[in-house]
Specification:
The protein contains four helices and no strands. The longest helix has about 40 residues. The protein is elongated and about 70 Å long.
Length: about 80
């Protein structure tokens, strides 16, 4: 082995094993990033749900502020 190989191959493993290890580490890194994204989205949804539960009961019993919005059809939207 020359000095370049020993400086980059500290464990003395074959190139195939080193490639497999590098691929494994990259896959674990990507899985970690995905877990961070999923958990942060879950945390935002949980915070919104907690804020909704903290509201007083009277605020949940109020009528819809846009009572006719559900009654609009496609033809009504085309006229606007």
């Amino acid at each position: 082995m020359n000095s370049d190989e020993t400086s980059t191959n500290l464990l003395g493993v074959s190139n195939k094993s080193r490639l497999a290890g590098d691929v494994l580490m990259l896959m674990l890194k990507g899985a970690g990033y995905a877990a961070i994204v999923v958990l942060s989205i879950w945390a935002v949804i949980a915070i919104i749900a907690l804020v909704g539960r903290a509201l007083p009961e009277e605020s949940r019993q109020q009528p819809d502020p846009t009572p006719l919005s559900w009654d609009m059809s496609i033809t009504d939207l085309k006229r606007v």
